[in-house]
Design a protein that fits this description.
Elements: H1 4-11, E1 17-19, H2 24-34, E2 38-42, E3 48-53, H3 54-60, H4 73-76, H5 90-100, E4 104-109, E5 112-118, H6 119-143
Parallel strand pairs: 1-2
Antiparallel strand pairs: 2-3, 4-5
Helix pairs in contact: 5-6
């Protein structure tokens, strides 16, 4: 059974963050440069305090006619953050994402953020695991 640790081994542990006092425009520029859809929002001590996604921007800035050059990240970030730890299974994480509607999960270990997994990472890992099982079963059937 694949775990968060397995995903991070392949994906890496780098996490893009943004300070809560920065502008939404700065966050969007950072997301575009890295080709990601979300950033982890941190305070001055680099503690996780929220998440900011393209979805937040679309719903809380554009649709309200606000300016991303003026509005601060803290004004539109999602404060409800779901966390996971490296030992959790992909299935547990998918259940959490589904139940709590948290598409991005910071990975915490001993009070430190050690990575970030997204719903896309979880789906990819789940498919990979199922493909492996299918190949194993196919090989078993053909060798019998």
């Amino acid at each position: 059974m694949k775990t968060v640790k397995d995903i991070l081994r392949v994906k890496g542990r780098d996490v893009l963050t943004i300070k809560q006092e920065q502008t939404v425009y700065a966050a969007l520029a950072k997301m575009a440069e890295a080709d990601v859809g979300a950033l982890v929002v941190v305070d001055d001590q680099d503690d996780v305090i929220g998440l900011l996604s393209e979805r937040d921007y679309a719903r809380k800035v554009i649709l309200k006619g606000a300016s991303s050059l003026e509005i601060k990240v803290k004004s539109i970030m999602e404060e409800k953050v779901c966390y996971v730890h490296p030992g959790q299974s992909v299935e547990e994480c998918m259940a959490l994402v589904t139940e709590k509607r948290c598409p991005h999960l910071p990975v915490m270990e001993n009070g430190e953020m050690v990575g970030l997994v997204s719903i896309g990472d979880l789906v990819k890992a789940s498919i990979s695991e199922k493909e492996f099982l299918i190949n194993q079963l196919t090989n078993y059937i053909h060798s019998s």
